[in-house]
Every structure is written in structure tokens, then in C-alpha cells.
Amino acid sequence: MIQRGLGFLSLVVVLVALYMAFVYTPPDSFQGDVMRVFYFHVAAAWNAYLAFFVVFLSSIAFLVSKKELYDQLAVSSAEIGVLFTSITLVMGSTWSRAIWGAWWVWEPRLTTTLILWFIYVAYLLIRASIETREKGARFAAMFAIVGFVDVPIVHLSVSWWRSVHPTVINTGGTMAMADVMLRTMLIAVVGFSLLYVYLVLFRYRTQVLTDTLIKFKNVMREVRL
Amino acid sequence: MIKGILVVLMVLVISGIGYAEDFSGGGNSFFLQLLFLAYSLAWVLIIFYVGTLYNRQKRLEDELRFLMKQYQED
Questions:
Q1: Residues 6+ positions from B63 with CB-CB distance below 8 Å
Q2: Considering the domain boundaries, does residue A30 fall inside one?
Q3: Pair A206, A42: CB distance under 8 Å
Q4: Is residue A29 part of a domain?
């Protein structure tokens, strides 16, 4: 019930954000209409960070407490994080084609984001490839903790290296956009954050079902023996 | 249902890209097409993922129900 309510709420907020991105906000004076990609691109990137931060915290909690719940939460959040990183890359790539004239540019922000995507795809593959459930979970948790190092690198890459990627906040700490654009971006971030929570709950339930099924099969095998 | 939504979305993407060309009068059409493409691809990814998750969950529930029934019979 809560999950459905959350799904509905996220849909409403995302639709409001879409309206604001396409109708309420005027086109950018320099980039024109292509600037509208930015609102959902930033929202997706923010949620990818959030998702991987949850994976990081859950992995530490799992290694400390050995509670299955944290591992289930980590794998759920990692999958949603990969989804949001994919959206960030796809939307960014189309924007790049319009503004920079190429679908892909090997500049620091893009390269580190692609590495981030590979890290968490590898995390999911590791989990799937190790046969023992507990061993796989433990190894994946350690991998996720180390892999999270790339998140601050992605965020700071624009100031550490010579990057052509635009920033939301200027080096002086001021916002690099007009108020109307900032409002739209914040609504999009809230909408995608609600969508993230909804998807994590959805995915978490699937993981619980998968684990229950494995345990049940083992019990049945023992009973038959 | 999810397949249906995806088909409708793909039709919207194709017609939307064409519409963007007419709408701009040819001047800014390429940028509008890219904008439309970016949002469409994002939604295709989300809907495809939710659909896959829904199917996976349904399959697991069915399998669990079947096994529990079998367990009770045993």
C-alpha cells in the first residue's frame, strides 16, 4: 500500500517536473531548448550518487552485523544506481552531441562516470557469478565499499582536472543558473528521489522473494533426503 | 501491459522526432530531436526496468506458491 502510494506520488511529481522542464522554464539564452535535458540529467545523476551511498552504508552494515537485510538493501540500491547512471550517461550523451558536436567526449566527468557505471555493473556480475550466497555477499560488500571511492572523484573531477563539463555551483559557491531553472531542477530531483525510494522498495521485495525461494528449495531438498 | 506501454512509447518517440522537425520549421529541428530522444530513452529505460522487475516478482511469487502447495501435499 505504502509502496503503491509512493509510486503514484513519484509519478505526479515527475509529471510536474516534466511540465516545468518543457513549458514553465524558458529556453536557455545560450544553449536554447537543449538545455532542458539538464533538469532530468542532474536529477538522475544525484540519485545515482544517493543509490551508491546507500550501497556503501548497507555494505558496511552487512560486514559488521552479518544481517541479510543489509545485503538485500545493498543489491537493490546498486541495481537502481546502475539504472540512474545509465540514464545520466544516455541523456548527457545526447546533450553532448548538440553542444559539443560529439556523442562522447573523453573528458574527466564523463570518463569517471563511465568508470562508476562499470564498477557497479561489475558488482552485480560478481554477485551473480559466485555460487555461495554468503561468500558472494561478503565479497560484493567489500567491492562496493572500495568502489564508492569513485563517487567523490566523479563529483570533484570538474575542479580537479581541466573539464569542459558544466557545473551547477560556481567555484565561488554561487548557483550557476537562474532561479526559475533552479526551481525546476529541484522539483525534478525530488521526483526522481521519490522514484528511487519506490524502485528500491520494489527491488528489495524481489530480492527477499528470491532468497526465500532459495531457502525453501533447500529445506525441501533436505526433507526429501 | 508493459510491452504495450513500450510500444506506445516507441511510436511516440518516432512521431515526436518527426513532430520536432515540423515544429521548428527546420531551423532548430536537430536540437529538438536530440532533446526528445534524451527524454524518450530515459523513460524507455525506466519502464523497461519496472516491467522486468514486475515480471520477475510475479514469476517468483508463482514459483513460491507452487512449491508451498507441493510441500503441503508431501
A1: A213
A2: no
A3: no
A4: no
Tell whether A205 is within 8 A of chain B (Cβ): yes
The total number of structural domains in chain A stands at 1
* Beta carbons of A220 and B30 less than 8 Å apart: no
Per-residue pLDDT of chain A (225 residues; tens, 9 = 90+): 778 888 889 889 988 988 888 888 888 777 777 788 888 999 999 999 999 999 999 999 999 999 999 999 999 999 999 999 999 998 888 888 888 888 888 888 999 999 999 999 999 998 888 878 888 889 999 999 999 999 999 888 888 887 777 777 666 666 677 888 889 899 999 999 999 999 999 999 999 999 888 888 888 888 776
A28 — phi, psi (to 5°)?
-70, 145
**Optimal mutation site among A19, A28, A206, A224, interface B, most CBs of chain B within 10 A:** A206
* Facing B64 at nearest CB: one of A18, A86, A216: A216
Rounded CA-CA distance A12/A14 in Å is: 6
Q: For residue A85, give its domain range.
A: 2-24+35-224
CATH number of the domain to which A59 belongs: 1.20.120
CA distances from A208 to A41, A145, A188, B50, B52 (A): 31, 22, 30, 17, 16
Q: Is this prediction's ipTM beyond 0.90? A: no
C-alpha cell at B40: 524518450
Angle at the Cα of A113 from the Cα atoms of A147 and A107, rounded to 5 degrees: 130
Burial class (CB in 10 A: 0-12, 13-18, 19+), A17: buried
B35, B38, B74 ranked by CB distance to A90: nearest? B38
Q: How far apart are CA A6 and CA A201, in angstroms?
A: 10
